[in-house]
Amino acid sequence: MNEHYAFLKMTAGVLCTVGLYSVLYRENKFYRFFEHVFLGLAAGYAIVALWSENLKEGWYDLLVGSAGTNGHSGPYGHYLYVLLLPIGLMGYFVFSKKHSWMSRVPIGIVLGLWSGQQVQVWWTRYGPQIQDSIKPLLPTVWSPAMKPDTTGMTPALADAVSKNVYLSQAITNVIFVITLLAVLSYFLFSFEVKSKAIRGFSTLGRYLLMIGFGAIFGSTVMMRFALLIDRMYYVWIEWLMNHVIARKF
Predict the structure, then answer these.
(1) Residues whose CB is less than 8 angstroms from the CB of residue 153 and which lie 6 or more positions away in sequence, other chains included
(2) Which of 31-45, 48-62, 188-202 comes out lowest in average pLDDT?
(3) DSSP string spanning 125-163?
(4) pTM (global) more than 0.70
């Protein structure tokens, strides 16, 4: 019984895979059907995830409290959290023409809290990048040219080796700083640039940006191919070879 159920489940997965990839040929009703199935499943999963991963732990458990274990009492509920319920429900008044203004209250609260948090989020995300962009350009050790392997070294010696700037690392840092300054110079739109040197540096920044975007696009294509290979392996190997053909022979 379990084998038949597993086979039917895998067959349904194969039909969904083929149906969704059939859009590569052209728009068709087969693709439309599985598109609606996927969207319906995603919407249902999102509702369950919203309650189990957000509302229950972040609001309901704090509201009613929870039972303790091993004879100890759990955290008490804070009934002031019930005030969040009408504020959240006010967001649904966006569907009412007469009372749609009430939906702006929770939106304003969320935007205010979000805007305040973004200052910290911005610095947490980009602060380390700004700090890492300040790199030493001159080597402190000329020999050896490359950083030696620290495997087997004592912690004190490994720490001393990691603090040195070797020639290969200095060259890498110079390339990084030139790339950073060239790309930043490309975005000098506030005033007219008359210097030919800065114009040439800005052109270099444009080419470096194109290389970077090309690498990002290439990695995106590779990720899509990895997904395609995974689904084709599921269809041809796991389903066709291991279940369909193996059952016949």
Answers:
(1) 161
(2) 188-202
(3) HHHHHHHHT----S-SB-SSSSPPP-TT--HHHHHHHHH
(4) no
